[in-house]
Amino acid sequence: MLRISRLVPFLAFALLACSANGNSTRDGAANHDAGSNDNGSAGSGSGFDDDDFDPDASTDPGPAIATLRGRVYAPNGEIPISGALIYLTNTMPPDIPDGVYCDKCVELGQGTPHTFSAPSGEFELPVRNTGDYHLVVQKGQFRRIRSITVTEGVQEVDKEKTTFPAKTMKPFDTIPKMAIVTGQWDAVDLTLAKLGLASTKPGFLGGEEVDRSKPHGFDYIEGFAASDFLKNPAEMSKYHIIFKPCSDSDGTVCKNYSPADEAAVQNALREYVSKGGKFYATDYSYEYVRRPWPGFITWQGESSQTGSACNGGGSDGPAEVPDSGMGAWLSALGHKDWEIHESWTGLQKVSPTQGLDPDGTPATITPKVWVQTKAGGKPATVSFESGCGRVMYSTYHTEAGMAETIPQQMALLYVLLEVGVCVAPPVVK
């Protein structure tokens, strides 16, 4: 059996050993090496067992007699998805859990037809047997399953079958369950809407806002409920991804107190992430990362005082993408050169720090830098593992107050999909 986690999109037809998520590197007692994902690869996971698949393969299956060709899209049907796993199976995969879970890699039977989408979203899947299959397209908790009849020759796959859904309708369509703990700034919900997960309408003071009267693929946690939510790991664990956008300031001056100072909030966040949750904070909400997980990230101007890094200076200006996978994808979208907007904090560096790997074993975790400033190479978007989950932070706002979709919104989508994939050490069965 082959455990699938990451393959280089340009070597999509080769069966390679799995590597763990490229979110960060780790080196500990278990000698797990997560890799840095600098090869532009991507993976997917949903915690399947070896016996969940009927690969319909023999010891000598012979050459491919059919090829499926198509492109994977975000829920809006426009943005191509890089590194999505596409495979055929004779049996329905089990449901993705509704709440947080430790996502170990999909394990496909040897001979299972599979491939990964290129930065353009395009894929070609060679198949050695014709007939009826389930076509599975997945990245993290985004998954679409559709029936398909494979015939000889080249077969174009209908776009509907390879476009990620905008809502969960099990067993065929699944999206991650997401919550936005609303703040004063940074309309993350608008970015998610641009990906096809909500509808928008004209805003009260111009611009646009999410039309909450229509279906949207995420929940809002607001007001007094937000304070209780961030202290309650059981409630948080109902979600795969939690956003804490920029907050806790009076204009451009941060307050000297944050709910993140409370031990109950710090403990709840650590517990949520360790179980497999993904926590994403932006800009002035940095205390929600700095307090629970000290040492991984150093902010410019930070001291022991809450709010001290607000005076550290923003990082607006030309962006640089050290991750080649994200770089190739943004280039495919026409965003080879772009600038960071509305960044009110700055990062000094990331540092290897003692933590836990997905198996709970002590390990040294090195955060991954996805986006940095071109001038000085200062990190701007970073992530790191903590147990089975991940922590993400961006110095800049995701929506940046602009109506059009901008590269930093695309960077959010890419990081969300990448850190949503499975975790596991290299294993071939």
In words, what does this structure look like?
The protein has about 425 residues and is an alpha+beta fold. It folds into two domains: about 1-175, Immunoglobulin-like, CATH 2.60.40; about 180-420, Rossmann fold, CATH 3.40.50. About 15% of the residues lie in helices and about 30% in strands. It is built from seven helices and 27 strands. The chain has helices at about 190-195, 225-230, 235, 265-275, 285-290, 325-330, 405-420; strands at about 1-5, 25-30, 65-70, 85-90, 105-110, 115, 120-125, 130-140, 140-150, 155, 175, 180, 200, 210, 220, 240-245, 250, 255, 280, 295-300, 315-320, 340, 345-350, 355, 360-375, 380-385, 390-395. Strands 2, 12, 15, 16, 19, 21, 22, 24, 25, 26 and 27 form an eleven-stranded mixed sheet that branches. It has a five-stranded antiparallel sheet with strand order 6-4-8-9-11, with no helix packed on it. It has a three-stranded mixed sheet with strand order 7-3-10, with no helix packed on it. Strand 13 (about 200) and strand 14 form a beta hairpin. It is globular. The termini are close together. About 50% of the residues are buried. Residues about 1-25, about 30-60 and about 425-429 have low confidence and may be disordered.
